[in-house]
């Protein structure tokens, strides 16, 4: 890690002096974002390792799965890995291979794999929530058991659901700091790449050079966009799985009791259970700075457009 910072400091003195105007400051800000992100990742990886290990043990003790659940092919990840391989293979032919690798590609790669690890954990937890919903669905479809037994089973499932929700929140909070710095770095990278793409299209004279730079910039922007989509998708998917279907099944069971005219004090307890399901639905944020759902895309599009227009005006 120390060698990384030494390299950045030594190389920045030559690279930044070779660029002029707004390009120089955009490059400096992007590199600062890279260094900040790598520093944060290094500190947080060391700081949270014991907490993550403890949470993984708790998750393993709380889960219901007895076999590996079937997972569909994630095409977003496959396309992302293919683009990463293409960009990595193109570094030897770029103008500044070492600078581009250490200042742009390596921090991006570290943060991408950090979120992919979180995505795997949230996918596993999502399967647990699906299993709880499946058990509730079975209780809804089969009302042959005594009323007290059905309510007691639902109570146990709700408590397990509540424990899993707390573990999910605790686990995602371990990644809030790195997610915040990663999104700051992501914003700098996407503005930097779009601005340089526009700049090169306007001022590069050689057609072959222009096509190569255009293709490389598009692939790199595609990696950034896929990374953002995977991250937001995993958070919104987890939010949707936590409580939505479980509450619906509990309400269906209550309606079945009402239709059979078996409403008593024990059945009334289903109201409290449904409230518990609703109150355990998490809301993921990056340390309360911005929500981690699809609404975050609107903020990013507006901010990127604004900064690109400002940078182009300064250049013109």
TrEMBL record:
Keyword Transmembrane helix (UniProt): yes
Membrane topology reported for the UniProt record: Multi-pass membrane protein
Transmembrane segments annotated in the record for this chain: 183-202, 214-235, 292-312
GO CC annotation: axon; dendrite; neuronal cell body; plasma membrane
Keyword list, A-Z: Cell membrane, Membrane, Receptor, Transducer, Transmembrane, Transmembrane helix
Alphabetized InterPro entries for the sequence: 7TM_chemorcpt
Subcellular compartments: Cell membrane
GO BP of this protein: chemosensory behavior; male courtship behavior; sensory perception of taste; signal transduction
Physiological role: Gustatory receptor which mediates acceptance or avoidance behavior, depending on its substrates.
Family named by the database record: Belongs to the insect chemoreceptor superfamily. Gustatory receptor (GR) family.
Protein name: Gustatory receptor
Organism this protein belongs to: Tenebrio molitor
Lineage: Eukaryota, Metazoa, Ecdysozoa, Arthropoda, Hexapoda
